[in-house]
Write a structure and sequence with these properties.
By secondary structure, the chain is α+β, with helices and mostly antiparallel strands. It is built from 15 helices and eleven strands.
Length: 364
Amino acid sequence: MFDPARLDNAADMFMDVAFGKNGWTAALTSLSDALDAFGIVLMPVSSRVPGQLPTSHGYGETIDTYVREGWFTNDVRLAGVPAMLRKHVIDDNDSMPFNLLTHTSYYNDFMRKCGIGPFAAMSVPYADELVAIAISRPLDGANFQEEEIIALKRIRPRIIAGAQISAQLDSARNSGISDSLDAMPDAAALLDREGKVIRMNAACTALLTRGLVLRYGYLGSNHRANSANAQTYLRMAITPVEYAHPVASRPFLLTREDRFPLILRAQRLTGLCWHYFSQAWGLVLINDPETGRTPQAELLGALFQLTPAETRVALEVLEGGKDARALSDDLGLSHETVRHHLKSIFAKTGARTQAGLVSLLLRL
């Protein structure tokens, strides 16, 4: 028998999620138990991007099938989204009546195979996205009654409050990441779950004058086909590993007009503070082969215990193509002094030749 008190207790757990006391699984499982559901999934409605969707306990395998077999792009129940925007909580009658649903491939090839029956959904605005709490009962379960729909509408404000707090904490986290990006000398951009840029640092912005293009939020170049491949690469690279493609683990070359290509390396954000509804999903680092940087003198001294004089010689070696005599002329030192400094530099760095020293220093 339906117990409103159990539903209230479940609603309170969504506030706990915002502060990290409980995870999505615990909150969704509590709600599922209160509604005698087969399972509950929290899923984006406005952006249909696959991934490891938060579910109630024991429902993950069903949702993996939903994503892996492509049903998330062919879900006939999405017809109820307009009604959900108006009414906030819907059931089968607002999307597709169950007697009609049984004639669809979605029912016969997915729902019946997985044991999914009557349905209800609640809209939850989260940051700039519309999220749905989709509730499914067993195949032979009872339809959702009016008192249950009313009770779901009653607890919805508390669930929204938890979602809003979670979104604010996520925004603060992203601001911290963005501040870190600004301190980086390398070009970097923060990406959302679709691979669109949320934030670029100054070094990345500077590349917009050197062949990098930001079009409709996506990174690319003036080579349209290559840019399309870059967007695919970025999406794959930041997708949870179980849905990722092996090519996502390799760097991507972004073609530019009359220049060497840019090298893109993307990485999905992970860790305890990341979850499916995080705004930031990934980070892309961009290397421009045409803009090699000389290591700072302080860095060389700290890493290899070089003296100031040895550091001057090492940095001069980076100019390339100079023998000891040319170095002595440029530095105003005797030939023997330069040879002595080079011998000491080789001993401290492990390099055996000037070419080897240059290769080492350019990697710093």
